[in-house]
Amino acid sequence: MNPAPDAQRSRATIAPSPSLARASTASRPIHQTCASPWRHWKRLSTSRGPKGTRAVAFGDFHVLPGNTPQRETVLEPGDLITHVTLPPPVTGSKHLYLKLRDRASYEFALASTAVVLTITSSKITRARIALGGVGTKPWRSPEAEAALTGKAANEATFRQAAEAALRGAKAQSENGFKIELAKRCLTHALRTAAAS
Description:
Elements: H1 5-11, E1 14-15, H2 31-38, E2 43-49, E3 52-57, H3 58-61, E4 81-85, E5 93-102, E6 105-120, E7 123-132, E8 139-140, H4 142-148, H5 155-166, E9 170-171, H6 177-195
Antiparallel strand pairs: 1-9, 2-3, 2-4, 5-6, 6-7, 7-8
Helix pairs in contact: 4-5, 5-6
């Protein structure tokens, strides 16, 4: 049975490049749940899997579909995530996770973003940005981070960062709205985090 059109749309992806232009077909895409940890960029640890205990950098945890579209992560059968290691937050930093959903499918993000900002004297001195719901894996945006760092914490800067994050994004069929939605999601999250 095919999912309803709204469910298909909420699982579709947009991509920063053609290499990411695939749709997620999992019933519960793991990338939906992982944008928030991306803001801290540390590691996941697995234990007692077939290959023993290992640590996986969070940036290496998700895989692109490529030749294995059924796989979303590097986990092997029998692997278990036992804990996640995060560094302590930077003193004075502001953290926010924002998830935008369709009323008909509260579970799936149409777009989400996780932001961490450090602001000193009205200037952004450090930024970490991740997007979810818009690709087959959480998408960190060094372009948005660079657009924010050293700049004034204001609406124009936030919009420039959102434009940088989505520059070159390619929509799939029936999800072109996600590009603007992701920009607005990021802009709103930055504004809200900066004001907190």
